[in-house]
Input
Amino acid sequence: MAEKFVLATHNPGKLAEMKSILSGLGVEVISPAEAGVEVDVEESGTTFAENAMLKAKAVCAAAGLPAIADDSGLCVDALNGGPGVYSARYGGEGLDDRGRCMLLLRSMRGQTTRAAHFTCAVACAFPGGDTLTAEGRCDGAIAFAPLGDGGFGYDPVFLVPEKGKTFGQLGPEEKSAISHRGKALAAFAEKLGAYLGK
Ligand code: ITT
Output
């Protein structure tokens, strides 16, 4: 029987990407709702890796199953690496994805560099205490206006220079082939394969 893993996220955009990227792995992945757990983890870490591990361990403990978490964010050079680990909370609770994109564009007015990158840290926690980690990064730039309605979060304002398109203009597979999450989960899949085969 395939081993079950809980994807420790409340973000539907992430959940869809994680499910699709991990689908080739030969393990069953389920949402927290499907596992019957509802865990609200305080992301008190100062790094993506710390926050990913906090989420993975909390959901693993609640579900009694291995859990895989993703902590990710957009790091903008002109904003000293911000919003970074605060990407989901940028501008406060009143804003939705669109509002955060517009706030970001406003804060970029007059900036001379628009360089930015997405980072994704993946952490997996097993009930016995073992853990696995991986990271991925995708470099790009902040667009001058939102383009495309694919993906989620900051996708419409994250420009991938070699594609001449924003993440929001890419299809799901095209995005995952180059994205921070695609790279982190590919690295994680290799480690998980080695771990499960051991
Ligand atoms: P969980 O903690 O429940 O997984 P979250 O959305 O709060 O959901 P994070 O704390 O990791 O997750 O915040 C990541 C934020 O960074 C996310 O809400 C988006 O705004 C942004 N982000 C991360 N990956 C992204 C991507 O692939 N495309 C666009 N925005 C992304």
Observations:
- The chain has one domain: 3-197.
- The two ends are 17 Å apart (CA to CA).
- Residues 9-11, 14, 43, 55, 70-74, 87-88, 118, 151-155, 167, 179, 181 surround inosine 5'-triphosphate (CB under 6 Å).
- Helices lie at 12-22, 32-35, 48-63, 97-107, 172-178, 180-196.
